[in-house]
């Protein structure tokens, strides 16, 4: 195994990486909540976004939900049959939400299984090659100018507690956080529900307007506005500074997908 930098903050800007700091407030687990936590270090207050996993799943679901049904509805609108657009749109929406939810569930389950597998391997390596495991810790701190003698007190403490030793290796060598035991269910529900909610936006005008073209004209600005808002939300959620750029890019992706679908159906229909 190769050593890696022990700086947790480099993994993702959304994860809280220090909960034991003096003055730190209690927060939800980083994979099951969406709070903003305040951490005070020597009078300096920092805001940290939590709920990285939940936000990521919601972004995945909303992104596909706003784009795929929008493109489908726009494409079918060229057939001038509102009922067909609604029926096909709802069918795709339900099937897509189930598929996306199942994908989120399997991804969350795989994440848990991967963590457990790596943890078992670390325990076994601690039994089989303890000297090499200690050297990996030395290698982690070496780029920061710390020698083995400097961190010997740390090694002594870790030798006395194999569980803490493995915890350290999981966190700083493999850079893996323990997933929430319900992560697979949370991810599946979040992705599926987000997809369904996002997909309803472009279909709503077709429920209230009898003319397919009129419904399309109403669906386009409604969905583009939703894509813009989603782009802003996504940029803020992941800590991007170019919020407007992110929103415009999101609109362009949705618009291109819808235009391609509309033109494709019209060509085949002709």
From TrEMBL:
Chain segments annotated as transmembrane: 84-107, 185-209, 215-235, 247-268
Annotated membrane topology: Multi-pass membrane protein
Keywords: Membrane, Transmembrane, Transmembrane helix
Main subcellular location of this protein, as a coarse class: membrane
Chain intervals for the UniProt region annotation (Disordered): 1-33
Biased composition annotated in UniProt, kind: Polar residues: 19-33
Location in or out of the cell: Endomembrane system
GO biological process: intracellular manganese ion homeostasis
GO cellular component: endomembrane system
GO molecular function, a single term: manganese ion transmembrane transporter activity
Family: Belongs to the CCC1 family.
PANTHER family (UniProt xref): FE(2+)/MN(2+) TRANSPORTER PCL1
Record's protein name: Protein ccc1
Gene source species: Dimargaris verticillata
């Amino acid at each position: 195994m190769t050593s890696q930098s022990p700086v947790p903050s480099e993994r993702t800007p959304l994860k809280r990486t220090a909960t034991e700091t003096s003055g730190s407030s209690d927060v939800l687990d980083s994979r099951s909540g969406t709070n903003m936590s305040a951490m005070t270090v020597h009078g300096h207050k920092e805001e940290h976004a939590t709920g990285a996993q939940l936000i990521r799943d919601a972004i995945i679901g909303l992104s596909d939900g706003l784009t795929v049904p929008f493109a489908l509805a726009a494409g079918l609108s060229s057939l001038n049959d509102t009922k067909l657009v609604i029926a096909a749109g709802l069918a795709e929406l339900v099937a897509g939400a189930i598929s996306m939810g199942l994908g989120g569930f399997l991804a969350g389950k795989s994440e848990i299984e991967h963590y457990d597998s790596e943890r078992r391997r670390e325990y076994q390596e601690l039994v089989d090659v303890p000297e090499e495991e200690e050297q990996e810790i030395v290698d982690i701190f070496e780029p920061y100018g710390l020698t083995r003698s400097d961190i010997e007190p740390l090694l002594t403490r870790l030798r006395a507690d194999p569980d803490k030793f493995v915890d350290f290796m999981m966190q700083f060598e493999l850079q893996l956080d323990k997933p929430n035991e319900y992560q697979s269910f949370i991810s599946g529900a979040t992705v599926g529900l987000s997809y369904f909610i996002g997909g309803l936006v472009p279909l709503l005008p077709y429920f209230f307007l009898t003319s397919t073209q009129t419904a399309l004209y109403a669906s386009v600005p409604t969905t583009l506005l939703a894509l813009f808002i989603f782009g802003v939300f996504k940029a803020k959620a992941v800590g991007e500074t170019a919020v407007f750029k992110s929103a415009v890019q999101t609109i362009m992706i949705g618009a291109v997908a819808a235009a391609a679908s509309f033109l494709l159906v019209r060509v085949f229909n002709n």
